[in-house]
Amino acid sequence: QVTSIQHVGFFGEAERELPCDPEIRCPFPFSPRTSDVLRPIISFNPPKAGDVTAVSLEVRSYVDLEPGDRILVVLGGFGGVTGPLTFVSALNVSGSYVSTTWTVEMILLSNISANSHFSIEIPQSNGISLPRSVLEINSNSLLVTIIKSDNTASSLVPISAAIGYLNNFAVSFDTCADLSAAQKQNLEASCTFLCILNSACSQYCLSPFSVTSITISFSNSMAFVNGDVLTVTFPGFDGDDAEFFPTSSGNFISRGTWTSADQTVRLYVNKGVAIAGGGGNSITVPITAGIRLPRSGLLANDASGISYSMTARNGIILSTNHLSSPTVESIISKSEIHFNPPLPGTATEIVVQFNPVSIRKSSQTDCSQDNALDAQSWVAVYLPNFRIEYENLIATGQTLVQRTNPFSNNNESLSIKVESIPIS
User: Fold this and answer.
1) Given this model, what pLDDT does residue 192 score?
2) Could you report the per-residue pLDDT of 45-103, keeping only the tens digit for each?
């Protein structure tokens, strides 16, 4: 039975007793939680490909280190600007970054005794960014070198986690995926973009709060294996919890779930199916999953809304700002407010104009809905810094009636109850 291991560290090697049984499970020497790790450890926060990150270095050296000794950290392919760096460490250290060689130089200004364990962090504010590509586990594009004042040097490839990356990540929606081909032929335009702004069906867009299928597409720079999970969060989307069987290129996704509490779709890589890196992939969540588009709409390419992540054996993946998604019209697609007279500190008439968007009902093949907004709906108008003295407002105009303001605890808002608003 193996009970010890000969392991190379900075400026030497040593025999260490194994703290575990290698035939069962032995993290030594690759676990950051193992105090006897002799190789340096580099970690990143956040570990998001292409984004600015904090870089943390943990080191153990066999020899004494003195003021003037240097630590060079090569971060191959990383971004940043040449210049001085700030550090967070219990040590006294100064240094700089050279972008042309991807090298961080740290100059020690205090003594470090042999076999000491120390850490140095380069905060995110220094502007060093991860490469927009896959960083493999224990990547040899990373290198840590200690150079002593007598010019003797020792280099080691550090321990580091894998960081993944997905290219061309896009989502699209189809609110008519439940219609038959014959039903779709009766529509004046592509059902994918159907919404109703008037009785003539003259404008098409994605209907808010409609049940929709969701297609997710991307190209992967890393291989996927059984046990990997792709998570996509859709803020503002609705629908009961569901488990479903998506369709996917190469059938590499076996099943999926929708959780309404965190508004998240989780997609599980199929057992026995491995997807090599470099390919294009698509996954479609069926309309039968019952996921609804947000009532408030969705801005095109809104990376601050929809986000994704992946727990993958070959690299953690976090959402980037490069995401493609269509516009989803809100229930009120356009609005205007006019004041008469438009004078500060003066009582004024307020005219509110808005275009409501109707919601497509299941299997609807025409534009015969009577009302864009149901009776009992409320239109709330927020007017910051305005003074509204009366709860009961006189509302004039077709289909609107006066009602008590349900937002009476907010003196900067007014509301009107909708009896009905015809599409025409």
Assistant:
1) 39
2) 999 998 999 999 999 877 899 999 999 999 999 999 999 999 999 999 999 999 999 99
Contact 402, 393 (CB under 8 A): yes
Q: Which residues share a beta bridge with 65?
A: 112
Q: How far apart are the first and last CA of the chain?
A: 83
User: Can you spell out the DSSP letters for 130-169?
Assistant: --SS-B-TT-TTEEEEEE-TTS-EEEEPPB---B--EEEE
Secondary structure E strands in 135-278: 142-147, 153-156, 166-174, 213-220, 229-233, 242-244, 247-248, 253-259, 264-269
Judge if the upstream peptide bond of residue 158 is cis by omega within 30 degrees of 0. Answer: no
Radius of gyration for the alpha carbons in the chain, expressed in angstroms and rounded: 30
* CA dihedral (340, 342, 347, 353) positive or negative: positive
Domain 27-156, architecture per CATH:
Sandwich (2.60)
More confident residue, 324 or 398: 324
Task: Name the residue with tokens 């159907």.
Answer: 194
Report residue 200's pLDDT band, with 50, 70 and 90 as the boundaries. very low
The total of other beta-carbon atoms located within 10 Å of residue 268's CB is 17
* AA letter at 123: P
The predicted structure's pLDDT at residue 185? 54
Model confidence pLDDT, tens digit, residues 367-393: 444 445 554 455 666 666 676 665 555
Nearest residue to 369 via CA among 380, 379, 382, 356: 356
Q: Could you give phi then psi for residue 251, rounded to 5 degrees? A: 50, 40
* DSSP string of 14-31, one letter each residue: EEEE-SS-TTT---TTT-
Tens of pLDDT along 136-149?
888 999 999 999 99
The count of C-alpha atoms lying within 13 angstroms of the C-alpha of 243, restricted to the half-sphere facing its C-beta, is 3
Tens digits of per-residue pLDDT, 9-40? Answer: 787 666 656 555 544 455 444 443 444 456 88
SS3 423: coil
Domain(s) of CATH 2.60.40.1170: residues in the chain: 27-156
Return the sign of the alpha-carbon dihedral for residues 151, 156, 157, 158.
Answer: negative
Q: Which two three-digit tokens encode residue 180?
A: 């038959």
**φ and ψ of 191, to 5 deg:** -65, -20
Percent of residues, the chain, with pLDDT higher than 70: 63
Give the CATH architecture of domain 168-323: Sandwich (2.60)
